[in-house]
Amino acid sequence: MNDLSILGVEDDQPRRRRHHRRKRRNPVGPALSLIVVVALAVGVVFGARAIWRKASAVPDYEGSGTGTVYVEVHDGDTAADIGATMLKAHVIKSTRAFRNAAEEDQRSRGIQPGTYKLRQHMSGAAALSILLEPTARVGRVTVPEGLTVNQTITVLTKDTKLKSAALKSAAAKPAQLGLPDYANGKLEGFLFPTTYNLPQDASAANVLKMMVEQQRKQVSPASLTGTVAGVKLTPERVVIIASLLEKEAITSDFTKVSRVIYNRLAHGMPLQLDSTINYALGRNKARVSQKQTQTNSPYNTYLHKGLPPGPIANPGLTAISAALHPAGGDWLYFIKKDRAGHSFFTADPKAFAKQKTKSQAEGVY
């Protein structure tokens, strides 16, 4: 027995050692957890995007709409302005829908003022396509230079829904049309010739007011003054002379005919313009007879010296400019010399008589 046996431990038995085995971790578990977390994150992101898209989607109708509605586009309107007008008229569902369509099409910058025939509940793109179509505009009318009031009424009656009787009734009340003071209560000469986009519900009086207002915008009385060939100019005289040019000559001869008028006025000679007699007779002819030169009218410039008592047509800006700035020359006579409308100018009465005979023989006068 040895010492070890006294302690109750046999020396021939190996000591038992405690082995602490570490548990092996399963790699599938964490990976699966990571996948679940990622999936949840992706779901949250896509869900958030879906919610955001739904919340931020631009309200817009589908298709080309139904019914009929008229929308007026004003000069200077932006896409936002046009969109607001159409939204109010229930054409589009949101201004953003129209603005988005306009931003994608550069042609939208060329939308013209006027009244357009549209439909309700249109998509923004469908509304834009109509606004880009010139034929969609209604109430668009062009009034040429040199027409009388009666001739202007004829044009308005032909190209709009306005009635001739209503226009004539409105024209017979010039005091209600906003004429400038120098018009002396006469409408003739103050219906400005240009292209108008008339509102769908415009009355006859409103249309004539619009034309008078345009004349006041385009022609400043302060600019219609001065002195030419010893003739003192006033706004009234300038408009009268401009109206004579419209009826007597083609545009390229305006400044020369203007000089003839001033030269004859300066010499105290009657103007002897056939256009003033035709105005008195209510017609639009090239020639007048010897008998017609005796017509009893203050507009007869064969019988009365000086300018007629008022304009005989509605002049445009080119004629008004020519009335203010005549060409230089000593001409006292002019007469049409060809079918294109060009005139022959001279200070010699014999040369004038000779050309007159020639023009009559050729049928150009």
Short synopsis of the structure:
By secondary structure, the protein is mainly alpha-helical. 41% of the residues lie in helices and 10% in strands.
Class derived from helix and strand content: mainly alpha
Number of strands: 9
- Helix proportion: 40-55%
**Beta-strand residue fraction:** 5-15%
Q: Tell me the number of structural domains.
A: 3
Low-confidence stretches: 1-19
The average pLDDT score comes to 87
**Amino- and carboxy-terminal Cα gap:** 165 Å
Give the strand order, joined by hyphens, for the main sheet. Answer: 1-2-3
Give me the number of helical elements.
13
What's the main sheet like?
A: 3 strands, antiparallel
Cα radius of gyration in angstroms: 43 Å
Choose one word for the global shape.
elongated
Order of helices and strands: HHEHHEHEEHHEHEEHHHHEEH
Characterization of the model:
The chain has 365 residues and is mainly α. It folds into 3 domains: 66-138, Dna Ligase, domain 1; 140-218, no CATH class; 221-361, no CATH class. Helices cover 41% and strands 10% of the residues. The protein contains 13 helices and 9 strands. It has helices at residues 3-6, 28-56, 79-88, 95-103, 124-131, 149-159, 164-171, 204-218, 235-248, 254-266, 274-281, 317-324, 349-361, and strands at residues 66-73, 114-120, 137-138, 140-142, 195-197, 226-228, 231-233, 333-336, 343-346. The strands form 4 sheets. Strands 1-2-3 form a 3-stranded antiparallel beta sheet, with helices on one face. β6 and β7 (231-233) form a beta hairpin. The protein is elongated, with a radius of gyration of 43 Å. 31% of the residues are buried. Mean pLDDT is 87; it is low at 1-19.
